[in-house]
Amino acid sequence: MEAAGPPAVILNAERERSVLRGHPWVFSGAVGRVAGEPASGETVRVATAAGEVLGLGAYSPRSQIRVRLWTREPTRAIDAAFFHERVRAAIARRRALLDAAALPACRLVHGEADGLPGVVADRYADVVVLQLTSAGAERWRDAIADALAAETGCAGIYERSDAEVREIEGLAPRTGAIRGTLAGAMAEIVEHGIRYRVDVAHGQKTGFYLDQRDNRARVRALARGCDVLNAFCYTGGFSLAALAGGARSVLSLDSSAAALALARENLALNALDASRAEWAEADVFAHLRGLRDAGRTFDLVVLDPPKFAPTAAHAARAARAYKDINLLAFRLLRPGGLLVTFSCSGGVTADLFQKIVASAAVDAGAEAQLLARLAAAPDHPVMLAFPEGEYLKGLILKKL
Ligand code: SAH
């Protein structure tokens, strides 16, 4: 008999190891038995077969990730105060970690790494964009929104819970203002001195790729005098960074007309030489071939494609796509030129990504040196016990 209290998920004896080692997820295959009838998102105790309670988590009846742990303290109350405390701690870590200038445009809450699985919160000036992707996060939506409003003093909390992964949790998409109202749903941020407008309501993800902040600064430092190609430019992040760094020309490609329109607006917001910027609405795969056939070459190529492999199951197809664009990039590079290439696919490890890029170089007949490995900015931390949290990796390569 279990003691009275919240429902319990009892693990299979041979499947306890992962949680004991600090992993925050319980997969359905690890569940031996469920005591009680927990609702979606309800708090459950997670216990070993021998009856030891390992922690408290949120129950997801529809997902293979059956429980996401909130805490390893069996007696902790999971209530609004708990979420307020977690949000406060997450924001305090950003204050300790980032330059003050970066705080108005940073990731405040990064899911598992901040003890809040399924919760992402990005700050853009006086708006916080909240994305909830798990049943547990959904259940505590109000408490989380209240805590973010109280801890940031931001006037608006805007929800962008429209990520596809919600479907797996049985959650419908939801977007719109949760707290305050948002005139026009546009925010304006400053990153390393460059101004960007962020379309909070319609932009991709939460509106801006904050994880690339420091990598954009790296590109800026490399761009002086270069002819730059920025493939998958979105709203112009790396393009403006390269122009600010003194690039001679920047050709930017994206398939999204809306992203390109905002990229041009962003360029106009800054005191940069617009005559050096060329924008093309194009499919990168086809356009790189066209550039190759036209004999165009560049000193610096940035490749920051979307997630080709959300999970390891998609890795093979993703590998072909990565190889294709990196091979073309090597061909477009002049001798001595630099390739700054990324993968944000959780299903492709850093090691695999480097192997794919290496084989692209071989097929392009290029010799290349690895100058640096890149990752997401530090407001997107990774827990050692949760390597799945590491998604963005990049390489800086020099073509000899
Ligand atoms: N580097 C950007 C973020 C890139 S996000 C930044 O720093 O902000 C990936 C971008 O790739 C998106 O803008 C998306 O519209 C674009 N995209 C996706 N598939 C594409 C394709 N086949 N060709 C061109 N652009 C594509």
Briefly, what is this?
The chain folds into 3 domains: 8-71, Archaeosine Trna-guanine Transglycosylase, Chain: A, domain 4, CATH 2.30.130; 80-187, Transcription Regulator spoIIAA, CATH 3.30.750; 209-399, Vaccinia Virus protein VP39 (Rossmann fold). It has 10 helices and 20 strands. 28% of the residues lie in helices and 30% in strands.
Main pleated-sheet profile: 7 strands, mixed
CATH topology of the largest domain: Rossmann fold
Radius of gyration: 23 Å
Strand content: 25-35%
CATH architecture of the largest domain: 3-Layer(aba) Sandwich
Strand tally:
20
Report on this model:
The chain has 400 residues and is an alpha/beta fold. The chain has helices at 17-20, 80-97, 135-139, 141-152, 213-222, 237-244, 257-269, 284-293, 315-332, 350-364; strands at 8-11, 25-27, 31-35, 43-47, 53-59, 65-71, 105-110, 119-124, 127-132, 156-161, 174-179, 186-191, 194-199, 227-231, 249-254, 277-281, 298-303, 333-343, 368-375, 393-399. A hairpin with a 2-residue loop joins strand 12 and strand 13 (194-199). The mean pLDDT is 96.
